Prior knowledge:
This protein is of the alpha/beta class and about 200 residues long. The protein has helices at about 1-40, 55-65, 80-90, 130-140, 160-165; strands at about 45-50, 70-75, 95-100, 115-120, 145-155, 170-175, 190-195. Helices cover about 40% and strands about 25% of the residues.
Amino acid sequence: xxxxxxxxxxxxxxxxxxxxxxxxxxxxxxxxxxxxxxxxxxxxxxxxxxxxxxxxxxxxxxxxxxxxxxxxxxxxxxxxxxxxxxxxxxxxxxxxxxxxxxxxxxxxxxxxxxxxxxxxxxxxxxxxxxxxxxxxxxxxxxxxxxxxxxxxxxxxxxxxxxxxxxxxxxxxxxxxxxxxxxxxxxxxxxxxxxxxx
Length: 197
């Protein structure tokens, strides 16, 4: 009985440790990798759909120079807006950072305007699941014809591939993140979807 209890405790600690590694260490590493591969020009127009990963919005604003701008779409969280507004002030990026409230299925963004559309751990929360297709269509609508879509999320990213192909995205890649993206274990892992027309 003691051995079984010890094994259970060890497994629980491993799950908690893996989850915390992704939460505090893995997410920044994943986005650092993504941003280094995108090599965004400093005058890019960038949209972030959902502000679920604190830091990404300001990191991108600091990479840009006016007229480059990052627009963050807040999905119904007043506290996030307040925090990000304060961070805009603290980092002095008001000339290249903008916040709007909205919904992934009806984005308050201009059509064919953004060079990059990014989403951090947001698409899985769109419900009902059928609305995720609508959210993909909206992301495609606001992108420039030669734009790039990046979705970092857990769950089945393959589900978006057929719709993206129908929307004209010929180059769709899904990149695993390894243990840095495990939310407790390999049963809930983060992937990176990169789509270009």
